[in-house]
Amino acid sequence: MEEKKLNNSVIKELMEKYKTIWALSHFGSLAHWDLNTYMPEEGIESRAEALAKLAVLSQKMFLEKDFLSLIKKAENEKELNDYEKAVIRLLNRSLKYYQKLPPEFIEEFTKVTSEAHVAWKNAKEQDNFSLFAPFLEKIVELVRKKAELLGYEKHPYDALLDEYEEGLTTEESENFFSQIKEPLKNLISYIKKSPKYKEEHELEKHEYDREKIKAFANFILTYIHYNMKHLRIDLSPHPFSTYIGKGDHRITMRPKDNFAKTYSSTMHEYGHALYDIQTHEDLHYSPIGGGTSLIIHESQSRFWENFIGKSKTFLASIYGEMKKINPEIEKYSIDDIYHYINLVKPSLIRTEADEVTYHIHIIIRFELEKALIEGKIKVSELPRIWKDKYQEYLGISPKTDKEGVLQDIHWSQGSIGYFPTYSMGTALSALWKKHIEKELGKIDDLVKTKEGIRKIQDWLKEKIHKHGATYLYNELLQKSTGESFSAKALLDYLEEKYKAIY
């Protein structure tokens, strides 16, 4: 039987008190999920008010004298294991946040971002950036203030990056993007010059019934997951996955007329859910239950989206279900489907981008966010600068705000500093792939059967998921594989795969 993770008596006492704070977070997560899925639009005012008060109540409970003294007491305990040390680290991280951000700031930020979500949703539906711009201006003003309140060593954007990936800096992000930018541009150029390059695949031209696509997404989850009592899937304007609590993981999808895009996003969100599902039993209800490292989280979603979902052998195993979406699919071989799912071409929508051009979308957002925080560009200039950057980097330009600056949900949530984790997480996923194949054999062979898929899930659980948020991404990589983080595995994988296809 596996050893218990949280054994120290003071840590146990601390966790018993923490459960009430966890419960507030539990219902806050549920309220956010509902806001994105089922809440009537007119409910936003009361929902924003409730979430704001909930955030302030969490802060108040966290800063209670008894709770703070327990944290101090736990810090003085000897011979704590890695999990117990991580509990203290994460609590101190939250403590810094609550001590430095005044209650009135937290309340205002929560209220503004809750209302901004509905403004963004309406702006996107109506293809009108001006409906969202005033809210985004306020959010940028608030995140700048947040950076100053939290503090930073070199750059205000550091404080925002750190909120999503502990210790991540602007300099580290810039170094990573400088490693991948030119090699990716060269690979894109190689692919575009190939006689096999296509601007469009025939399968994109077919019409697909959205109800059948939704049924296909449900089939995919049932096929790859071993206990559907953990999961439910609903619709939202932007696909996401959220961990409500033990045994309660919500995935949302945005049905598209193009089945490949819905398929990829479903695989992506499943990777997030599985990480939380497979956290060690002892860590639920604690600050290290589930994954708080977004780089690790994105490594899991991108792993399932790219290495499983785009595998030819996996596609062959679900080909029969694909045909139910549209009988026209029968005209195409598995090779045709494989080339379609792995089609590389500059496109406008980040969540629907191929593996190669995807990182260019992230680089654009990183550069825009950094410039906004530095005050080098204004919110009103974003649609124009967005279009200019897409033209410069990918040779295409959005004709509408909906397919341009309004496509992502993140800024409406105040999540500035989040985007770099997508690209770095993808690089980390390539390192996990490399080591899975060293130990278990080729992924293309494993995904031929449900047993092989379960072997992959078990490897991920043992090496990554069971630890929850105990380790930072580079620490976990070192502990699990003995290797340090770099972009090399990602670049090697992309070169080998796409030079073979093209």
Detailed description of the structure:
It is a single chain. The chain is mainly α and 502 residues long. The protein has a domain of 156 residues. The protein has 22 helices and three strands. Strands 1-3-2 form a three-stranded mixed β-sheet, with helices on both faces. The radius of gyration is 22 Å and the shape is globular. The chain starts with 8 loop residues before the first helix and ends with a helix. The model has no long low-confidence stretch (mean pLDDT 94).
Low-confidence stretches: none
Strand content: under 5%
Mean pLDDT: 94
Which of globular, elongated, flat, extended, rod-shaped describes the shape? globular
Strand order in the sheet with the most strands? 1-3-2
Query: Helical proportion?
Result: 55-70%
Write the layout of secondary structure elements.
Elements: H1 9-37, H2 44-62, H3 65-75, H4 82-100, H5 103-126, H6 133-150, H7 156-164, H8 170-193, H9 202-205, H10 210-224, E1 231-235, E2 241-245, E3 248-253, H11 259-277, H12 294-308, H13 312-317, H14 319-325, H15 334-341, H16 358-374, H17 382-394, H18 420-440, H19 443-446, H20 450-463, H21 473-481, H22 488-501
Helix pairs in contact: 1-2, 1-3, 2-5, 5-6, 6-7, 8-22, 10-11, 10-14, 11-12, 12-18, 16-17, 18-22
